[in-house]
Amino acid sequence: MNKTFVKILGWYGVLAILLGFFLASFGMILPREEFYLFLNLTGAAAMAIECYSKKDFPPMTLNAVWFLIALMALARGFFLHR
pLDDT-based confidence at 36, cuts 50/70/90? Predict the structure, then answer.
């Protein structure tokens, strides 16, 4: 994968997770909202890919688990509201 693309992906991940945390911390969104979960899902996936490209496995594992938690929360919300 292109190194520049991977770096951009990593920075997107950092910004997405920080934006979600900021918005939830100041009451602008709720942690169960789809937008918050989407930011966490895509941010964690992007950071996991970037960490994998560097063979940096501890933060890759953290972000892979973060991704799975966000995915499960989104799926739960989807199936509860059907």
Answer: very high
